[in-house]
Amino acid sequence: MLLVVGVYIVAGNLANGIGGGAKALAKGAVPAAYQALVQKWGNLCPAINPALLAAQLYQESGFNPRAQSPAAAQGIAQFIPGTWATHGIDGDGDGDRDVWDPRDAIPSAASYDCELASYVKDVPGDATKNMLAAYNAGAYAVIKYGGVPPYRETQNYVKTITTLQDSFAAPVGRVDPSKQAAGAISYAQKKLGTLYLWGGDGTLEDGGRFDCSGLTKAAYESVGISLPRVANDQYNAGPHPARDELLPGDLVFFSDDLTNSRAIRHVGIYVGGGYMIDAPRTGAVIRFDPIDTPDYFGATRVTEDGAKALPTQV
To answer: Are 162 and 196 in contact (CB under 8 A)?
Structure first.
């Protein structure tokens, strides 16, 4: 009965426009098919916002509505069957609750977050962090310890999601430059003239050759930052400066679908003056290329915390 009441309360809040959506979504960070859902349901209660909800969905499934884990977690929000049976809602009002349908699963994820937040609403501290801790460790643990409990797994989970949300949020002010940017550029400059190799990581087996994301990954690894292997995941390694805010060392991305970061197909390292160093394609060498092309998607200012927050697989 409490669960049903809780769902109707948060649904009523949504209808009345009450919510905590202080963070607007960055351009294309959420696939276009889900952007409106994430924006709407990310404003469900003060403990969440659209960027936080996007970070959870990316962490859970990489926005894949058919994802299924070895632990039987299902769908874009990775509900296990028992949790879905209790907390799944009919988000699109079509009369069923389908864990595989993002129109149900995304609203259910937001609703579940808000229910957890209501359980720990009287606990001191940050309401969002307490909600995330309750998601990971249970509401009782949060209540018992008066905040995020001293469990390493839970503390890491809270830090991961709250950090990762910055890569899905449109910046509202100046984005600080990366301390490692100059070193990453220096590494890439030393590779100028190297022949492209699809899938190349610059290893001995690859003859020291790279593809585009292999080059950017190696450049940042040279300064102690580990990035994911593919370009569309590298996009989530930090906040997103606008074109007129680019600084040397920013990663710049290109796509044939400018509404969806999951469709990104190319990445380079910005060096200033409208140019990047990149490994462009088979038959070409690592070189300087202009970034102002019709397929320019956007940029990421890589941060250590942002890179660490990324899941190893999505």
So the answer is: no
Across the beta sheet with 296-300, the strand order is 287-290, 275-278, 266-272, 251-254, 296-300
Bridge partners of 300, per DSSP, are 251
- The label of the residue with tokens 């002010």 reads 173
Using only the alpha carbons of the chain, give its radius of gyration. Answer: 21
Encoded tokens for 259: 């509404």
CA distance 211 to 300: 19
pLDDT in tens, the chain (314 residues): 223 323 333 333 333 333 344 578 998 999 999 999 999 999 999 999 999 999 999 999 999 999 999 989 999 999 999 999 999 999 999 999 999 999 999 999 999 999 999 999 999 999 999 999 998 899 999 999 999 999 999 999 999 999 999 999 998 888 888 889 999 999 999 999 999 999 999 999 999 999 999 999 999 999 999 999 999 999 999 999 999 999 999 999 999 999 999 999 999 999 999 999 999 999 999 999 999 999 999 999 999 999 999 987 66
Coil, strand or helix at 143: helix
Closest to 184 (Cα-Cα) out of 272, 265, 250: 250
Beta-bridge mates of residue 299 = 252
Q: Which residues pair with 288 in a beta bridge?
A: 277
Residue of 244, 268, 261, 238 lying closest to 178 (CA atoms): 238
User: Which among 76, 74, 94, 93 has a CA at the least distance from the CA of 85?
Assistant: 74
What are the φ/ψ torsions at residue 195 (nearest 5 degrees)?
Answer: -70, 140
